[in-house]
Amino acid sequence: MAITLYELAAADPDRRFSPFCWRIRLALEHKGLAFEGRPWRFTEKDALAFSGSDKVPVLVEDGRAIAESSVIAAHLEAAHPDRPSLFGGGAGVALTRLHVAWTDQVLHPALVPLLLLDIHRHLAEADRRYFRESREARFGKPLEAVCPDPEAQLASFRRTLSPVRAVLRAQAFLGGERPLYADFAVMGAFLWARGVSALALLEADDPVEAWRRRMLDRLGEGSRALVAG
Amino acid sequence: MAITLYELAAADPDRRFSPFCWRIRLALEHKGLAFEGRPWRFTEKDALAFSGSDKVPVLVEDGRAIAESSVIAAHLEAAHPDRPSLFGGGAGVALTRLHVAWTDQVLHPALVPLLLLDIHRHLAEADRRYFRESREARFGKPLEAVCPDPEAQLASFRRTLSPVRAVLRAQAFLGGERPLYADFAVMGAFLWARGVSALALLEADDPVEAWRRRMLDRLGEGSRALVAG
């Protein structure tokens, strides 16, 4: 039952900053599955060639490679039904899709302008050019011009969280009394940010901040080492 | 097991336009519970006094009055566990909160500017002054000035739907293969709009439009009469 998770890393291999990789790391810890997290960099396409994917996360379990965070999560749920559930049943699988889609399509776009330059700064030398070129093509402007007003962007990011904030006023986790994959999807964004930036994304009295701290407190030992310092 | 649902109505009592009342109507139909929908108007506070609430929806079941759509939905689920579930289990209850919060805090605010004048036009005479005064106080401007650019507002409303659109590309309903309360929360917004406006909120090839039509097809007989024409 050997499990390996390929995770996006910066120049410092302990600086893991892909929100999608974090989802799977949190899911593996939730299920209590031992695994090795293997740092991988944007330009190391060859090291992933065996998997048929050119992006992480890639999970390898008993020699089988699985790519794409949602596919990996579904695999973990199906392969380890005796372990704590990621979704809380069939309706949970269906309902969690909104948490994931909202994170991908609303939360990440609100966050990425605040992090771009920090990510670039922390990357391995070989990755910097790839990162700059691919992101400048996506945004149609130099990295340095994507976020002309960080303060306004931060305020907008905080407003974006309003539906999650309302849920976390009513219950401890998005999944209820205990975190589920819905929590891991949203927390992935905060761990991504934490990996590269010292910016205080949330105000101290924000219910989302209290939840973020609860989630940090629950990290497994391996992850704790990665977010320390 | 007599059930009465007090629902917000326009001058025409068959024009029901509260998104929160629609949620409960759809929930009652989902559970296959017979009920009487009783039209109520903003200024008929006295008619609700017995319930302790001054707003609809109010549900009366076996002489017990329950207000607030989320409280009513929880009541229906607890009181009728033998009927089809609204949430699909405990995790479903917790996860559905995001669908509801997102509808309340993101979808409704994107929609309301497009509907304000239509709502006002359809109200009973006695309600119009109440509606204008309360909404103008909320928006800090005349009703006529809330939506200076309806085309831009419509485009923004459609963009707002992006996470729901992504979910409905992957599955037939927000609840999965069958609708759940998560669907009723979002559909309430579209039935609210349909009650007062002829505006085509969605493009014909939008997956959200295909879902909206599936939801319309599943309406019970009583609701079908209300949305006809």
From TrEMBL, chains A, B:
Xref: Pfam families: GST_C_7, GST_N_2
User: Per the record, what is one GO cellular component?
Assistant: cytoplasm
The record's section on SUPFAM superfamilies has: GST C-terminal domain-like, Thioredoxin-like
Name the Gene Ontology molecular function terms of this record.
transferase activity
**Segments forming domain GST N-terminal:** 8-84
The superkingdom of the source organism is Bacteria
Keywords (A to Z) from UniProt: Transferase
Would you tell me the protein name for this molecule? Answer: Glutathione S-transferase
Biological source species:
Methylobacterium variabile
